Prior knowledge:
The protein is an all-alpha fold and 72 residues long. The protein has one domain. It is 43% helix and 0% strand. It starts with a helix and ends in a 7-residue tail after the last helix.
Amino acid sequence: xxxxxxxxxxxxxxxxxxxxxxxxxxxxxxxxxxxxxxxxxxxxxxxxxxxxxxxxxxxxxxxxxxxxxxxx
Length: 72
């Protein structure tokens, strides 16, 4: 969660406007997806992910209001 707050939310003010998490579920022998291989188990706290998503949206809104983002 610190990575999201430091590197994503913290850099929106510097012009960051997109990020992609490419491993939604585990594939074969990998273990770092958000979901298990069969997509039956969510491996992260859904509430924390909602909170981070809300914080990202709020930070982006603030950046747009201050003219710090080229996307409006």
